[in-house]
């Protein structure tokens, strides 16, 4: 059970404050998410659902955002904002997918030239692909392991 119970009007006021003051931001969405846990008894309210969707968006879980919006029948008060959020999530999901593929392509091309990149080359590749140097190193280790498994010498 919730630690707090507010009327629907009171919770709507809390939600309006979160929206109007710009409190729902990427740099504090974890704190807002923890704060919102105290209001789980309000989860049937549309402002609560809207906040949860925005928090999910800030976590960059775009597929889940689209699903959450699609499952609800929001009132006109919330629908326009959420329709725009759905479109933005859709575009970012596609962009993320495209960027991942482009990053893999960059790594694959480099792997064809060199199976063992230097530390400096890994840093450059990480910057080009928006990955960490650890992720780049793991990619090369996995590629070499696949070649060994297939019996290819390099």
UniProtKB/TrEMBL annotation:
Q: Which residues bind DNA?
A: 109-151
Keyword annotations of the record: DNA-binding, Homeobox, Nucleus
Keyword DNA-binding assigned to the entry: answer is yes
Any GO CC annotation of this UniProt entry? transcription regulator complex
Task: Establish whether keyword Cell wall biogenesis/degradation is in the entry.
Answer: no
Name used for this protein in its record: Homeobox domain-containing protein
Organism domain of life = Eukaryota
Q: Name one GO molecular function term.
A: RNA polymerase II cis-regulatory region sequence-specific DNA binding
Q: Which InterPro entries match?
A: HD, Homeodomain-like_sf
* Stretch forming the signal peptide: none
Compartments annotated for it: namely: Nucleus
């Amino acid at each position: 059970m919730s630690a707090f119970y507010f009327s629907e009007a009171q919770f709507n006021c809390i939600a309006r404050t979160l929206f109007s003051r710009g409190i729902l931001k990427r740099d504090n969405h974890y704190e807002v998410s923890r704060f919102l846990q105290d209001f789980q008894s309000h989860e049937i309210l549309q402002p609560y659902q809207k906040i949860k969707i925005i928090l999910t968006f800030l976590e960059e879980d775009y597929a889940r955002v689209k699903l959450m919006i699609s499952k609800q029948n929001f009132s006109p008060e919330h629908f326009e904002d959420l329709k725009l959020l759905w479109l933005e999530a859709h575009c970012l999901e596609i962009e993320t997918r495209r960027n991942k593929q482009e990053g893999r392509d960059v790594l694959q091309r480099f792997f064809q030239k060199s199976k063992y990149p230097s530390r400096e080359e890994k840093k450059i590749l990480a910057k080009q692909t928006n990955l960490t140097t650890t992720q780049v190193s793991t990619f090369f280790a996995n590629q070499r392991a696949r070649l060994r498994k297939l019996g290819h010498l390099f």
